[in-house]
Design goal:
Length: 185
Amino acid sequence: MAYEGKMKYFILTNGDKNPFPQIINWSQAIDVRKLTREEYQKMPPFIQLNAKLGMDGVFPDVIAKPFLLFSRPAMEVTALYDPDIPFLFFVLFDTEKGECSSFFGPVLEEEDCLVRAPGLRQSELIFDRQKMSGIPFFRVRNGLESYAIVRMDLAESLLERKIVGLELKEVCMADRTVWNIGENS
């Protein structure tokens, strides 16, 4: 079913200059290929990861890399907009500082709505609105890259609650009729 709404969508990321924790040896503890709706149930219910905070580091509400993690407040807001979204439980430990924090990894549906990916002279993703289902939070793949996409109403709700670590970049939307005309010219 095509999404008929005119809601804006954003790529959810972290700011590059923020002193967020570095997750250490995560690839040995988790197979990110299983963070899909089809495979996530094969993951352990509790995943412990080592992290390094750094001198000015904090545990934010959103960690985008190497995979998406939310604090409890961010997870609860997201669940209000999509009650069916599954979450995996993670604990990050910084053994040097003796600090830890719990996180929830959302298991996002994947949508195939990408019209055009960033190229040499283009820096933005373009989505075909007709291929979108209208869900508030999903993933889009472009080769090996994966983008977490959030609908404007959910993004605003997260921002209103002062979620730390959230950075948003608007996604370009194209209607199929406009996109086809542009391709033929």
